[in-house]
Amino acid sequence: MQSFGQAELNASLNALSGVLLLIGHRKIMAGNMQAHKKYMIAAFISSSVFLVSYVIYHIRVGNVLFQGQGWIRPVYFAILISHVILAIVILPMAIASLMRGLQQKFDKHRKIARWTYPLWLYVSVTGVVVYVMLYQIYTPKT
Question: By C-alpha distance, which of 3, 23, 5, 8 is closest to 121?
């Protein structure tokens, strides 16, 4: 049986990460480096808490099967597969972006952040989409 609330917590942490990324990006585009730094660190913390919570959830619950049928099934799996692959890819990229920024290696930070930001945002958004499709639209049968 699904543990009540943890899946919602995970989706909320993904959504929070996405919002923090968007705000952080706006701050740097406006030239506010200090605010950018704070929002991006907060996004990293939110994503890190999500990762720990996600692992704990799946250790306790196991896999949750997608119940949708028909045309939505390949759509769901296309989103899920791209999400999982990019979630694996984004972790070292986010760490590298964060470290380069904190070390004030801004030229190297900008080079990787140009790729990190859109991929990380995609992972955050698709994490919420997967949650909605799996737990809200096509609710697992218990």
Answer: 23
